[in-house]
DNA sequence: ACCTGAACACCGTTCAAGT
DNA sequence: ACCTGAACACCGTTCAAGT
């Protein structure tokens, strides 16, 4: 239980190596097979037994979380940095575009992980919360400045970004994300109707 | 091959009954298991052998298409009707909201089918094209009236609706779709920035 | 503290044989 | 023209035994 619940790394060096090999194999496979990647193949490519995979990651979710949780930390940092940007709306939009980029990682698994329900107090949940708070500050700044409508929350915006990614995952033109992102941005700007 | 390619119904009466039983069973299961429903269980619940399922629906896609293709016809009809609505924008929005409702069918499988690549000349493709043209007329009317931005196409809007559905599929609050829909609508209205 | 791999269950898909 | 179900391949998951 130690590793799964604490989220810490394994104590033994060989176990840490195995964990890393599993993550690398999963990362490589996810780009090809998408979210339905075969766990057995992950173990096979990592050169470990299937039981070892389950030792490190008791569920699919645990594997995905380990793959993409660090992205949340990067996104939090950017949000903090851009909080002093002279143009609040521009800073917010830049950050949301970064969410679009990071979310696209691993066939949208990045954004999916970010929108998953995380175990209370888990490392992923903590990182996610920290990112969310930093982003919310960006949003509120733009709202206080009158550039963004006051009646939208960050969660709703981020889930819309997830939707954009998911809808374009198997689309004929996977780069249709930016025009759709543009509609989202215009939808949260002040000055429009309703 | 006849059935799969022509999309027509089977000639024999027992085969038509089997087809219907398969569709009913699939429809019931999809609400529970989502898009990853087990084909074997579909056949089991329909009371036919697994080979019979493959006879009628050679691929998963074929099964899904058969389940939801008729919705396209309904949506086309509504678009035609509302083309004479005095308020073009209101008519368009009402139709898009209908897309949201119909798309939500079967755990968003409805919208997914609508956004799939269909075989050229297949019945689904024809129905989808007809629906798309009728909807595009609604959109153009609202654009000609100056109520909706001229630089957005229907395909982009519909894919955004698909995204909204997918993003809310396993969400804590699955009825967050309407606020997100509101952002989309405001994003395509005239009068906003950019 | 961690690894191994056999064991079991379940599902996807094909196809020869039947009616 | 259609149905059947055995046959094969593959994967998910657990767990007793090992180091």
Portion of residues in beta strands of chain A equals under 5%
The parts of chain A where pLDDT drops under 50 for at least 5 residues are none
Label the overall shape of chain A: elongated
Largest sheet of chain A: none
Oligomer: homodimer
The termini of chain A sit apart by 51 Å
Topology:
2 copies of one chain form a homodimer.
Chain A: H1 2-6, H2 13-33, H3 39-46, H4 50-56, H5 60-81, H6 88-103, H7 105-114, H8 123-144, H9 154-168, H10 177-188
Helix pairs in contact in A: 2-3, 5-6, 5-7, 5-8, 6-7, 6-8, 6-9, 7-9, 9-10
Chain A binds a DNA duplex (19 and 19 nucleotides) through residues 2, 10-12, 14-15, 18, 38-41, 48-52, 54-55.
Feature tags:
DNA-binding; homodimer; elongated; mainly alpha; 71% helix
Give an account of the 3D structure.
Two copies of one chain form a homodimer. The first copy, chain A, has 194 residues and is mainly alpha-helical. In chain A, 71% of the residues lie in helices and 0% in strands. Chain A has ten helices and no strands. The first copy, chain A, has helices at 2-6, 13-33, 39-46, 50-56, 60-81, 88-103, 105-114, 123-144, 154-168, 177-188. The radius of gyration of chain A is 19 Å and the shape is elongated. The structure holds a DNA duplex (19 and 19 nucleotides).
């Amino acid at each position: 239980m130690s590793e799964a619940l604490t989220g810490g790394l394994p104590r033994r060096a060989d176990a840490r190596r195995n964990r890393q090999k599993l993550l690398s194999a999963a990362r490589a496979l996810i780009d090809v097979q998408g979210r339905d990647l075969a766990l057995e193949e992950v173990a096979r490519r990592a050169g470990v037994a299937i039981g070892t995979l389950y030792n490190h990651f008791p569920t699919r979710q645990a594997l995905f979380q380990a793959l993409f949780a660090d992205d949340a930390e990067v996104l939090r940092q950017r949000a903090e940095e851009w909080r002093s940007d002279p143009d609040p709306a521009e800073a917010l939009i830049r950050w949301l575009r970064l969410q679009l980029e990071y979310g696209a990682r691993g066939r949208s698994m990045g954004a999916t992980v970010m929108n998953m329900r995380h175990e209370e107090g888990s490392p992923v949940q903590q990182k996610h919360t920290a990112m969310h708070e930093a982003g919310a500050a960006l949003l509120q700044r733009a709202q206080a400045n009158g550039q963004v409508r006051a009646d939208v929350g960050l969660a709703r915006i981020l889930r819309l970004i997830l939707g954009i990614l998911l809808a374009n995952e198997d689309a004929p033109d996977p780069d249709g994300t930016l025009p759709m992102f543009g509609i989202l941005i215009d939808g949260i700007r002040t000055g429009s109707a309703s």
